[in-house]
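lol ok so funny story. i was supposed to be doing the assay writeup but got distracted and ended up predicting the structure for this chain instead. priorities right. anyway since i did it might as well share w the group, maybe its usefull for someone
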Amino acid sequence: MTVEVLIETARKIVGKYQLSNADFSAGTVGAALLTSKGNVYTGINIEVACGIGFCAEHSAIAEMLKNRETQIEMIVAANADTIIPPCGRCRELLFQVDNKNIHTKVYLSTEHYMTLDELLPNRWEPSI
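and the output, tada:
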C-alpha cells in the first residue's frame, strides 16, 4: 500500500458528524494505519467538553486492537486539506501498544515521514 492510498483512506472518513451540542464535533480528523499483517484500520476524532474526547489515531488503534493486532507499519492523520502530526499522547500510545512500533513510519506530509523513534526520543518506559 502506498502512503497516498493511506492518506486518501483517512480523508474518506472525515466529515461533520452531528453531536448533541453545536460546540462539540466529531470526524474533523481521520486517521488510517497499516499493520504489519497488511490490514488497514481507520478512526475519527471526537471533541467534546471536559477533555474527554480523543484523537483519530486512538480510534484507529482501538479498531486494530479489536482485531488482535498491535504492530503498525505506517500511520497518518488528516483533515480535508492537511496532514496532521500526532500529538504527544498519540505518540506514547503508539509505543505503549507495542514497543516494536518504535519503527512505525509516521507521515507528516505525502512525501515526508519520521519514525516514531525520531518523534518520541524521550518516551516513557516502565522502570524495571
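Helices lie at 3-12, 56-66, 88-97, 116-119. The mean pLDDT is 94.
back to the writeup now i swear
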